[in-house]
Specification:
Blueprint (H helix, E strand, L loop, with lengths): L3 H15 L7 H13 L4 H16 L5 H7 L4 H7 L4 H7 L3 H12 L6 E6 L5 H18 L9 E6 L2 H6 L2 H4 L18 E5 L13 E6 L14 H6 L2 H18 L4 E5 L12 H16 L4 E6 L3 E2 L2 E2 L3 E5 L1 H6 L6 E6 L5 H14 L11 E6 L2 H18 L7 E4 L7 H5 L10 E4 L12 E7 L5 H8 L13 E6 H15 L3 H6 L4 E8 L4 E16 L20 E10 L2 E12 L8 H12 L3 H10 L4 H10 L3 H13 E15 L6 E6 L6 E2 L1 H8 L8 E2 L1 E2 L3 H13 L20
Parallel strand pairs: 1-6, 1-9, 2-4, 2-5, 3-4, 5-6, 10-15, 11-13, 11-14, 12-13, 14-15
Antiparallel strand pairs: 7-8, 16-21, 16-23, 17-20, 18-19, 22-24
Helix pairs in contact: 3-8, 15-16, 18-19, 21-24
Length: 736
């Protein structure tokens, strides 16, 4: 994390989090509490949202430049914070203009907040956008005059293929992130997806979310050399299209308290701001010039340009972290000298079918994507060779799906690839299935083409990393030598990691979502005890009767048992005490007194007084204790029995308990303990159906004993048993 701006912000956010979110609105605190209780969001989503709220409510929704300046008490420290060497920073102190130029080059000159949230693919950027907008809408409803909170949102997508994945903004269950008392006002939210040039836009009032390819609402500039006759008598459809685009921009310009979310925001950062990129920024500034924007929030998985992190990044959760936390699959890379051959396809199919075959994950068939250079190459080279290999191995040809601009009739099947119903496993693509393709059952990618675009190699090859199931499935990427080198370079430039690092990465944890399958409340009787008083007894009344000491009660015994062979048959022998561990002590008087003090909390001088009054003077005590260490716990228990007087008040109360009140939420399980996580579907598939258990699905057992006991009870308890059901309530209890 070499970005000093990012480091400072995350340090501030961490301290604010530890201080229980001091300084936020009451509604915000309620939302954050609800989000953490429900556990719907991944940890990086929660941390990114916390950063968003901190910069908005605590810092005051300032521009990145203002926020950065606020971190430093002097210009010298500020220059050092930019990474400028000490000598150079000292020379610049007298050149105010140069300092301003450096700051503008780093953070731009925009006076609106322009923040970058960098979350790797699969970490939930789309949901995060929806949560940010939802939070803003709730806060703006209760604080209508506060300009920090947005009442409308515009989502810029780089192209039409991303718009499809952004429909999750509309369909996600906002009750998972918003408390019940605020949910009704979200019924006022109106969604506008501008999927085609003909789609009109008529936002009504506030609480509009507009999702559009930036081309469809971009600020137009008319060329001076354009032919006047063509402009006046051009095609009617073209004129109508431009009219719709002008109306869209005008409608958006009329919205108040507008926040703009830029998806896949690495398109907005680069070495040069030209073409569409330049016009996108012009459009944002144009909208800001009419009515001040609340903020511009950029989301990306690739926050690096020329191997340097973008200056505006305020939160970062990278590809490597995604694998470590179990959000992404682990991945293997296979490098080939020649990919445009039948041997390559044979080897890829054999590895894919041998590793994954038709074994479903989350009830979905595993899939591999082949990326071809062009349609002609796909139809004349790739597909015939692939179908020949499949036929030789007895794999059905209807498992193949071809999708590109000349196969739009297959679009619906392509969009439904990641469903239980999909029978497709071999996906052949040209110009499709890169950015924004969210297919968790895609477990492998093969690049059947020479590289033309470095970013294409990165986007296509890493499509198979999204996690599925318990995330124990490994991803596989098949590349040519040339593509391998490009991918390695792009990983360095865009993720600050390498193929070697990813290949060696081990998943430390798996994440599971727990769901309620049986709601159950129980009435229980509790016996409450309250200690009303604790009173020290007179030291003279403390008696230690050594004659009552029974060494056999304090023996340390070793038990042995196990499963053993007898005449060729294994038999179980229960554990029995077989021998005694004898221990002679070597304690001094002061060590004995310190141990008694530790367990009785009597002052050391008081302990010495008690011992002497009970005939246990120094030499006598040391001799007896070291001859039999068991005497020491007897002395301690004798003192405790006499030194304190407890008065207890007991009360019986009846309480109703919801056995699944903390659910649903996510849990993280270490790799070695993931075998203790058992789902109802797994259990039924292996051992048949049963009425027993799974009020929560899955169960996260604490030990194999618990897991085995649960399986045993499922098998032996029939419907006529007095035991109605067996619930496992451990493994995911509230740590508080």
């Amino acid at each position: 994390m070499e970005n000093p701006f990012l480091q400072h912000i995350q340090q501030k956010v961490a301290a604010w989090r530890d201080d229980d979110y001091k300084g936020v609105e009451r509604e915000t605190l309620n939302i954050l509490t609800h989000i953490k209780r429900v556990g719907f969001l991944h940890k990086p989503q929660v941390e990114a949202l916390e950063t968003y709220i901190y910069l908005k409510e605590v810092v005051g929704n300032k521009s990145s430049l203002e926020v950065f300046k606020s971190f430093f008490s002097s210009e010298r420290d500020m220059l050092l914070g930019l990474g400028i060497p000490k000598d150079e920073a000292f020379d610049l102190l007298d050149d105010k203009k140069k300092i301003e130029e450096l700051m503008a080059d780093k953070f731009g000159v925009s006076d609106y907040p322009n923040q970058v949230y960098a979350l790797t693919m699969g970490a939930g950027k789309t949901i995060l956008m929806a949560v940010m907008a939802t939070y803003d809408f709730v806060l703006s409803f209760y604080h209508p005059n506060d300009k920090r909170f947005a009442k409308n949102a515009l989502v810029f997508a780089p192209d039409t293929t991303i718009i499809e994945s952004l429909k999750e903004i509309k369909t996600f269950d906002y009750t998972q992130v918003v408390p019940k008392e605020y949910q009704n006002l979200l019924l006022n939210v109106k969604y506008h997806y501008l999927e085609s040039p003909e789609t009109p836009l008529s936002p009504i009032g506030n609480y509009n979310i507009i999702v559009s390819n930036s081309q469809k609402i971009i600020l137009k500039t008319r060329r001076a050399a354009e032919n006047t006759t063509k402009r006046l008598f051009g095609e009617r459809s073209e004129l109508e299209k431009k009219e719709i685009e002008n109306r869209r921009l005008a409608a958006i310009r009329g919205l108040s308290n507008l926040a703009i979310f830029v998806d896949e925001a690495h398109h907005s950062y680069g070495k040069t701001l030209e073409g569409t990129l330049k016009k996108t920024r012009q459009t944002i500034n144009y909208l800001h010039g009419n009515a001040p924007l609340v903020s511009v929030i950029n989301l990306t998985g690739t926050p690096y340009v020329s191997n340097k992190m973008i200056a505006d990044v305020v939160y970062h959760f990278g590809l490597k972290q995604g694998i470590e936390k179990g959000i992404l699959k682990q991945v293997r890379f296979f490098e080939y000298t020649q990919v445009k051959s039948g041997k390559f396809i044979k080897d890829v199919v054999d590895k894919f079918w041998g590793e994954y075959g038709e074994e479903r994950v989350e009830s979905r068939l595993p899939k591999i994507a082949f990326y071809a250079a062009n349609i002609d190459d796909l139809q004349k080279e790739l597909r015939p060779k692939l179908e020949k290999v499949l036929a030789e191995r007895g794999i059905a040809l209807d498992k193949v799906l071809e999708y590109h601009t000349e196969a739009e009739e297959n679009k619906e099947e392509f969009l439904n690839c990641d469903t239980i119903e999909s029978k497709k496993q071999f996906i052949l693509l040209v110009g499709k299935g890169t950015e924004g393709w969210n297919c968790r059952s895609l477990v492998a990618c093969a690049l059947y083409r020479k590289p033309k675009s470095a970013i294409f190699v990165l986007q296509s090859s890493t499509r198979c990393l999204r996690s599925i199931g318990d995330n124990s499935t490994l991803g596989s990427i098949f590349l040519s030598e040339e593509n391998y080198r490009i991918l390695d370079k792009e990983l360095r430039n865009n993720f600050a990691t390498t193929i070697e690092e990813l290949s060696a990465q081990e998943t430390k944890t798996f994440e599971h979502t727990l769901k309620i399958e049986k709601k159950k409340k129980l009435k229980v009787t509790k016996l409450l005890k309250e200690i009303l008083a604790i009173q020290n007894q007179d030291l003279d009344k403390i008696r230690i009767d050594v004659s009552k000491f029974k060494p056999e009660e304090y023996k340390s015994l070793v038990g042995e048992g196990g499963i053993f062979l007898s005449e060729g048959q294994a038999g179980y022998r229960r554990t029995q005490a077989t021998r005694e561990l004898k221990e002679n002590g070597n304690l001094t008087f002061y060590e004995i007194v310190e141990l008694i003090n530790r367990y009785t909390h009597l002052p050391c001088l008081a302990v010495e007084e008690v011992l002497e009054k009970n005939g246990l003077a120094r030499i006598n005590l040391v001799k007896k204790v070291n001859e039999n260490i068991a005497l020491l716990p007897f002395i301690i228990s004798s003192i405790l029995a006499n030194a304190y007087q407890y008065q207890e008040k007991t009360e019986t109360v009846e309480e109703e308990i919801e056995l699944a009140k903390m659910y649903p939420f996510k849990i993280s399980v270490e790799h070695g303990r993931n075998i203790l996580v058992v789902s109802r579907e797994q259990m039924e598939e292996a051992h048949g159906k049963s009425r027993i258990g799974f009020h929560i699905n899955p169960y996260n057992f604490d030990s194999t004993d618990e897991k085995d006991l649960f399986k045993y009870l499922r098998d032996v308890l029939d419907k006529d048993e007095a035991i109605v059901d067996v619930y496992f309530t451990g493994g995911a209890t509230d740590p508080k």
